[in-house]
Amino acid sequence: RLAMAASPGGQRNASMAMANELPVASYRKTAVLYLGWIFITGGMTVAVGTVGGWIISRGIIRRLYELNRAIEAIAEGDYSVRVNVHSSDEAGHLAASFNRMAVRINDTREDLEQMVEKIARQLQTALTDINDQRENEMKKDEFISIASHELRTPLTIIKAFFQITVKDMDPAFRSYHLIGKAARQLNRMER
Hints:
Elements: H1 2-6, H2 10-75, H3 90-168, H4 174-190
């Protein structure tokens, strides 16, 4: 300032220099202050974003893990397992879809089990009928065999009686032809 007061022409240059110097220092100080705030704000934003992302991803992973456990339970045959629907986002829609699928699988499995039981009962009835029919046929064959044997014995005796009677009988008798006819019918019955 002293140099500016001594020279009348230097006053103008000095005031310009002074005007230029003050704002640059002021700008520098303000810029450093703003940069500090930007770094602090940016660092806090990154930290909050990282923590928030970790919390959100943990929630998503927890729901996916729950869904995976339910899938494994169904794969092992436990069709009653359901997944809790926590939200209406994509993971919530996936859980709701999984629950609908699990209900349909369980209903279809129950329908198939009932159908298999019905068919098994029908097969058991058919097998029982076949066994009864086979047993009836065996009884019929046994009856025919016994009846045939029981009929042959008296028929053989009657046939022998007819043969003896015809040998001793005169062919002129009227009963001779009747006894011959009866003997032929007996021969036919024995076959």
